[in-house]
Amino acid sequence: MSNLFRSLPSMDALLTALAHPEQAGPGTPAASEQTARPYQADLAALPRPLLRDLVNAFLDQCRGAIRAGTITDAAALSTQALLPALAAHVLRAARPHFRRVLNATGVVIHTNLGRSLLAEEATAAVAEACANYSNLEFDLATGERGSRYSHVEELLCKVTGAEAGLVVNNNAAAVLLVLDTLCKGGEVVVSRGQLVEIGGSFRIPEVMEKSGAVLREVGATNRTHLRDYENAINERTVALLKVHTSNYRITGFHKEVGLAELVALGRARNLPVIEDLGSGSFLDFTPWGLHGEPTVREVVADGADVVSFSGDKVLGGPQAGLIVGRREIIARIKRNPLNRALRIDKMTLAALEATLRLYLDPELARRKVPTLRMMTAPADELARRARKLANRLRTALGDAATIGLAPGVSRVGGGSFPERDLPTTLVSVAPAGCSATALKERLLDTDPPLVGRLEDDTFRLDPRTLDDTEFPPAAAALAQALGLPGAQDAARPGKRAPRARRG
């Protein structure tokens, strides 16, 4: 064993071999296979201390294999023999922790996978903002300091019909800021059926408590009447709050007070009406089978004094909390010192402005904003794209898996349109050499990872959330997970993966 330890190459020898694999020795795996892949460029971009740490970790693994008796031949410890495994280890371990994922789940606004994708116009605006100085808080008309909110406020008012607007870093922050500004120390009347909790244990009562407002819940879980609000109002009441239950539905014996009724009561009692709209839809999705969600413009038109909603849900923009409403109230919210702690940065502003500009033409927004495009994709188009994906997978995977098509449903996600199904066509993958569950787990380790769903003992992909340009890397990920040789090239146009034998 001691001789085996002495046979291990030095750190410097392995670092040199990684930088110059052609010098590892003619006819070796390092010279024939590794030099065919231009991984040196990937390694050259790594900081030297990180590369040394990764090589050292690999050497520790080798020492562990020697102690365990897994390695018994000194020839297996030569630089030439170790280089392929070393390169694979370094490239794998050096991958960024935060990286791209292929979403084949069919959940359009997938909170765990980053919610909405940005339109090309928005990503271009972000790149421009990041690469250059900008007029973030500089008024080009006067040459003096300006307001960052001026870049989007006019657009926000145009597309919502509100008098004024403000943007903070998410909708939870928006609700907190509104309550802190208007309701601190006073009572806020809320229907008991609207005391929602969303992902991450975000609860309306707790946010209200943090803002300094006092919750006054009224009605029952399933039924609240206007008289419940009227009876709760007293000298300590400062606002009426309506929370749109966008992430669940109550059906059956149910009643809630409409916004118009609540606004009329607020006007009569001189109380502002606040609506937390959650997802913040700008379009009516009824033609696509998604109904029951009010648009922001409708809520503003119904007279809500303040409305807040998310930017990265149905709007299809960056993470942000948008606040619109009456001019004098928005002005008060802007002056709240907490606003500075919750403000958005230049990248969010750039992406949001570009997204809102698309909404000046709703049909243009539907075509350009990925979230809207996926939500409104026709069933026949999805069936066609599913057939296209299935054909590619059959070519890439050969006998390693059985590929089929099955009817299924997609979901909007992000707490939007709960229990509303979108018809789709799923591509099913039944692997020959492992279970569908094992395949799903292996796909989490591919580059990029492929996330789908399990149904009827098969791994399934929904083309609704998988762009045509992502079909090749999805096929390559499946080939890699199934252990096919040449997996990285398996899904390139004109390439056919070697056929794997069953078993």
Structural topology:
Blueprint: H1 2-7, H2 11-19, H3 29-32, H4 39-44, H5 48-68, H6 79-93, E1 102-103, E2 107-109, H7 120-131, E3 138-139, E4 144-145, H8 150-160, E5 164-168, H9 171-182, E6 187-191, E7 197-198, E8 202-203, H10 204-211, E9 214-218, H11 226-232, E10 237-243, H12 259-269, E11 273-278, H13 296-301, E12 306-310, E13 321-325, H14 327-335, H15 338-341, H16 346-358, H17 362-368, H18 370-375, H19 379-397, E14 401-413, E15 422-431, H20 436-442, E16 450-451, E17 453-455, E18 458-461, H21 471-481
Parallel strand pairs: 1-16, 2-14, 6-9, 6-10, 10-11, 11-12
Antiparallel strand pairs: 3-4, 5-13, 7-8, 12-13, 14-15, 15-18, 17-18
Helix pairs in contact: 2-6, 5-6, 7-16, 8-16, 9-10, 19-21
What does this structure look like?
This protein has 503 residues and is an alpha/beta fold. The protein has 3 domains: 2-93, no CATH class; 102-111 and 376-489, Aspartate Aminotransferase, domain 1 (Alpha-Beta Complex); 117-368, Aspartate Aminotransferase, domain 2 (3-Layer(aba) Sandwich). Helix content is 41%, strand content 17%. The protein is built from 21 helices and 18 strands. The protein has helices at residues 2-7, 11-19, 29-32, 39-44, 48-68, 79-93, 120-131, 150-160, 171-182, 204-211, 226-232, 259-269, 296-301, 327-335, 338-341, 346-358, 362-368, 370-375, 379-397, 436-442, 471-481; strands spanning 102-103, 107-109, 138-139, 144-145, 164-168, 187-191, 197-198, 202-203, 214-218, 237-243, 273-278, 306-310, 321-325, 401-413, 422-431, 450-451, 453-455, 458-461. The strands form 5 sheets. A 7-stranded mixed beta sheet has the order 5-13-12-11-10-6-9, with helices on both faces. The protein has a 5-stranded mixed beta sheet with strand order 2-14-15-18-17. β17 and β18 (458-461) form a beta hairpin. The longest helix has 21 residues, at 48-68. It is elongated, with a radius of gyration of 28 Å. The model is unreliable at 26-36 and 490-503 (pLDDT under 50).
